[in-house]
Write a structure and sequence with these properties.
This protein has helices at residues 3-9, 15-41, 54-58, 63-66, 81-84, 86-101, 104-110, 113-124, 128-139, 141-146, 149-181, 184-194, 196-236, 241-262, 278-281, 283-298, 301-310, 314-333, 336-344, 346-365, 371-391, 394-406, 409-431; strands at 47-50, 75-78, 268-270, 273-275. By secondary structure, it is mainly alpha-helical. The longest helix has 41 residues, at 196-236. This is DUF445 family protein.
Amino acid sequence: MSVLAVDWLLRDVDWLHFWTIPVFTGVIGWLINWTGLIMLFNPIRFHGVRIPGMRELAGVLPRKVQEVPGLAQGGVGWQGIIPARAAKMGSIAVDKAISKLGTASEFYQQLEPDKIAEHIVEVFRPEVPGLVDDVMHRERPGLWRDLPSPVKEAVYARVQAQLPGIIHRVTDEIGVHIDQLLDPKLMVIDHFEANPRLVVSIFRDFGQRELNLMVNFGFVFGFLLGIPVAYVDHLFGQWWLLPLLGVAVGWTTNALGMWLIFEPPERRRIWGAPVQGLFPRRQSEAAEVYAQIIAEDVITLENVGDYLLNGPDGDRTRQLLADALRPAIDQAAGVLRGAVRVAVGPRSYDAIRDAVAKEAVGKTILPFQDPAFSRQQGEQIRALIATRTKELPPADFVEMMRAAIREDEWMLYAHGAVMGLAGGFLHLVVFGVAR
């Protein structure tokens, strides 16, 4: 381009008016990304009001509009995009990562069933006399009342002596059927949905530095995009140009911010410079944080025990454990079994054995709820998840982190567009139309 052409293009530029435009778009870009983070993470729970008829109205609105947090439930307000999609992120986390990190059986083996059995025996042993007393008082009160104390003590001692073998059989039986009894995907989804703060922590605990960088880059993107806007405004000088171009700048600034965080997943060279998304660049550190959260709050021994007994297949678990305990109780009765069976009758003996088995089921799982023991065993889970997460292909790691919000990113872009529009009108109010 010749000097004369440049001189003509820049003739009569109002430089104060010109440079205030990229400064404005830079500040608006910073505000867009800053408030965008607030929209992503806050509030944890829905804040707003319920409006009669809103649920029905939402059903006929466009699909994208129905995705606004709270609208489909009949509310007008807001919930952070990430906590609102906690269940979805849990589902994707399982599909993209946890299902590749290990099966239910692998997770159970990492919890070390032998140590679990030893812990159950330690906790359960003092409970044996009370358990036997309760059952016998209920099933055969007269017989149990008339038995001499030394005989009762012998029964307690024999059951306690057989206890390690009984409990090892129970934990082995759980291990054999764990893939049918435990659904890690449903467990993670339910836990994330009930505790959306955990999902926010996954992003915040390792990525706060990158998120802050994205906010600061909002100013850079906005300022650079504002320069051509300022020139177009100088050339045409129409009042509607700045608000209209502000929409484009706001939308693009947010889109560039998301790109900066996630893209490209794998390191590549652009114009000779190595480029990689801020999150996938720190996959190794993210893996440690992610593993810590999953091991401490999601796939814990406490949660596994609760899921086994109270989850969708809880009845099946109880039946399986009772079936495993019945022959063990016969074994504990030893040589006395025949005599006892004759004394009380086969039907009464079977009722007593079944009652002991059912009573023992809950007590064999109760030690799973020991927080200190759960944390100790959880270290194995943490190590497994951290190792496998580090080995995930970067594209799968990015998908795990981003997929939960991908369909809602339009809200962030629309928010940027609205702020860009407002910034354009504000500049018009302060500085007027370019001459």
